[in-house]
């Protein structure tokens, strides 16, 4: 009897140490009550497939967690980003965000959320995975890169199967680098020799102009190490060229008008309804825009308006009034 009891106790002990014994599944996502941090880095985190479509800029791209898990986002990149929820379970082809994405909101995945504007090194609020389901999200600035990812929430205590093992058809990635199909103007004919090319890229670092203050990332020569206030003659021609020579290439930039009253508190506050869509042919007012320009793309040709100062900025990387340190992508064109 003593020998039988000892063997029984030993068998029970071995079973308790064996993965899968007594109905406990192995593998899967984070358990209930756990906490995960999703890395936000467009520069280093690679693109790849997800159940919702092409993704990138977050790591992991697909996050399997249990109900009760807390989810945070940390920006390890050198540029501002957001992690903002998107309705549905498939990434839409049209740009899905409004200016509200730049304000932190939400405390649960099911209720909708945004990290707000995440500056380099910052971490979002904690978001509770409160209900089982598929939650998709993306970056306000770089949605078309494509900077987007997925959280799959399974039942509490039960691991979620790895989604990529399922032969889910992956949508054809047509304009992967275009934030919205209608937002890309496509290659434009070469401008005439009289047109001034305004170069766009993160290689043109901040300059504090004596008259207009700090400006970022636009210059009149491709090799300029610093941004420049652009001075041109009224009635002349200008074009914008995204020839970013940093590791961000071939990501998109834009140039869109803010009017003649100075820099706004945000792109949306400028009243420009064409944040990512090509519009207009004259540098004047606050509705002209190059639309989204991927690396190597050139805008339509613009005619410079009457003498005066015209403030403008990037629909992706303008965050607020530029300072000497905030990397908000804005500049001034002076017509003389």
Description:
With 336 residues, this protein is mainly β. It folds into two domains: 26-165, Immunoglobulin-like; 175-336, Immunoglobulin-like. 4% of the residues lie in helices and 27% in strands. The strands form seven sheets. The protein has a five-stranded mixed sheet with strand order 14-11-16-21-19, with no helix packed on it. It has a four-stranded mixed sheet with strand order 4-1-6-8, with no helix packed on it. A four-stranded mixed sheet has the order 5-10-9-7, with no helix packed on it. Strand 12 and strand 13 form a beta hairpin.
Summarize the structure in short.
The chain is mainly beta. The protein is built from one helix and 23 strands.
| Count of discrete domains | 2
Alpha-beta classification = mainly beta
- How would you sum up the global shape? elongated
Proportion of residues in helical segments: under 10%
CATH superfamily descriptor of the largest domain: Cupredoxins -  blue copper proteins
Largest sheet descriptor = 5 strands, mixed
CATH class label of the largest domain: Mainly Beta
Write the layout of secondary structure elements.
Blueprint: H1 2-16, E1 35-40, E2 48-50, E3 53-55, E4 58-59, E5 62-66, E6 70-75, E7 84-86, E8 127-128, E9 133-138, E10 148-154, E11 196-200, E12 207-209, E13 213-215, E14 218-219, E15 230-232, E16 237-242, E17 256-259, E18 278-279, E19 282-283, E20 289-290, E21 302-304, E22 308-313, E23 330-335
Parallel strand pairs: 1-6, 5-10, 11-16, 15-23, 19-21
Antiparallel strand pairs: 1-4, 2-3, 6-8, 7-9, 9-10, 11-14, 12-13, 16-21, 17-22, 18-20, 22-23
């Amino acid at each position: 009897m003593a020998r039988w009891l000892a063997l029984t106790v030993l068998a029970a002990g071995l079973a308790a140490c064996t993965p899968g014994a007594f109905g406990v599944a192995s593998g899967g996502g984070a358990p209930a009550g756990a906490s995960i941090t999703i890395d936000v880095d467009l520069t280093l985190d690679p693109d790849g497939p997800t159940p919702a479509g092409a993704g990138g800029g977050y790591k992991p791209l697909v996050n399997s967690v249990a109900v009760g898990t807390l989810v945070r986002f940390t920006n390890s990149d050198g540029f501002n980003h957001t992690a903002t929820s998107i309705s549905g379970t498939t990434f839409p082809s049209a740009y899905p965000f409004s200016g509200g994405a730049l304000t932190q909101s939400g405390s649960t995945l099911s209720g909708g959320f945004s990290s707000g504007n995440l500056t380099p090194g910052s971490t979002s609020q904690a978001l509770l995975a409160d209900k089982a389901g598929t939650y998709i999200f993306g970056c306000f600035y770089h949605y078309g890169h494509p900077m987007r990812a997925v959280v799959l929430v399974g039942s509490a205590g039960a691991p979620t199967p790895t989604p990529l093992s399922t032969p889910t058809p992956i949508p054809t990635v047509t304009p992967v680098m275009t934030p919205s199909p209608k937002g890309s103007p496509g290659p434009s004919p070469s401008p005439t020799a009289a047109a001034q090319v305004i170069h766009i890229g993160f290689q043109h670092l901040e300059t504090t102009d004596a008259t207009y203050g700090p400006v970022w990332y636009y210059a009149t020569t491709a090799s300029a190490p610093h941004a420049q206030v652009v001075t041109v003659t009224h009635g002349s021609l200008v074009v914008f060229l995204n020839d970013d020579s940093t590791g961000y290439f071939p990501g998109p930039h834009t140039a869109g008008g803010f009017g003649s009253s100075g820099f706004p508190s945000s792109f949306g506050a400028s009243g420009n309804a064409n944040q990512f869509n090509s519009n207009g042919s004259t540098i004047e007012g606050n509705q002209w825009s190059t639309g989204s320009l991927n690396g190597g793309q050139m805008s339509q040709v613009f005619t410079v308006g009457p003498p005066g100062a015209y403030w403008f900025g990037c629909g992706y990387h303008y965050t607020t009034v530029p300072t000497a340190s905030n990397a908000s992508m804005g500049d001034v064109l002076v017509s003389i």
